[in-house]
Amino acid sequence: MQEPEEKKIALELLETEQAYVNRLHLLDQVFYTELMKEAKTGKTVPEEVVKMIFSNISSIYQFHAEFFLPELRKRMEDWNSNPCIGDVIQKLAPFLKMYGEYVKNFDKAVELITAWSDKSPPFQELIADIQKRKVCANLTLQHHMLEPVQRIPRYELLLKDYVRKLPPQSPDRGGAEKALEMIFMVAKHSNAAIAEMERLQNLWVVYQRLGLEDDIVDPSNELIKEGPIQKVSTRNNSTSEKYLFLFNNMLLYCVPRVIQVGAEFQVHLRMDVEDMKVRELKDTEFPHTFLVSGKQRTLELQARSGEEMNAWIK
Fold first, then answer.
1. pTM value?
2. Can you name the residues that pair with 253 across neighbouring β-strands?
3. Domains and CATH numbers, the chain
4. 3-class DSSP assignment, residue 158
5. Nearest 5°: phi and psi at 93?
6. How far apart are CA 148 and CA 154, in angstroms?
7. Per-block average pLDDT, block size 10, for the chain (314 residues)?
8. Can you give the residue ranges of the PH domain (predicted)?
């Protein structure tokens, strides 16, 4: 007799969970434990760095190995009398919020591995030595570390498939649909963590280009638009090349630096967005110009095209 489709998916969830726990074991009990042991001798890398690389992997490993996998296994053994996994996954969902921290830290962790591999040959050798073991299947530490980042989307896909294949009258329908909704919310939470991390990284790059002026560096700022612009000088009927950064709260009017050591731009003027007025100018001599007037001063600016001007005004 053929297994019902939903049971096949539930078994796939169990199999992938077992493989996933093995991967977490490798990360926590092998890589993390051995690197930490070496770090304690003080020869390879500071303990702090190892902790930063692995973030909260130990909690994630313990949760899956000691709670979720055993619960799932028990449920699959009792499948004939209780063909449900929705309730087990509902218990799992709130704990998946732990992934937010790991996911947010992932890029930083990979950077640290690269930086310390260059800086400390013993650190690099130890990682290479572990990577040669059969359990690593010829894959790098970075590759194994990506697995937790990809796990939540995987739950979501399997569960979607499971709900789709459930017969309408299945006792698990309500539970599985609720579980899917919960997993979806966690995935959103995890994606939001990644988006926020990317926003802060991009912001940091902009601050570096501006020479890290301390009154500008603020993590709550949002960059809305940036780009080159011509400044119109009515006095001598000419234009000069400038560069604008528009944030949610300020407009930075900059001059590109000729000698690019360190900062790329010098901030000439900072205008508050509050009370700022912007309007198009109908100037035959200088097309695509617009006027930006704020508390600090008024600028007559020329864009390269009508489209670009409209984008700035907007």
1. 0.67
2. 244, 269
3. 5-210 (1.20.900.10), 223-313 (2.30.29.30)
4. helix
5. -50, -50
6. 10
7. 85 96 96 94 89 95 95 93 92 87 88 92 93 92 92 92 92 93 85 76 80 70 87 81 88 80 78 87 83 85 87 88
8. 222-314
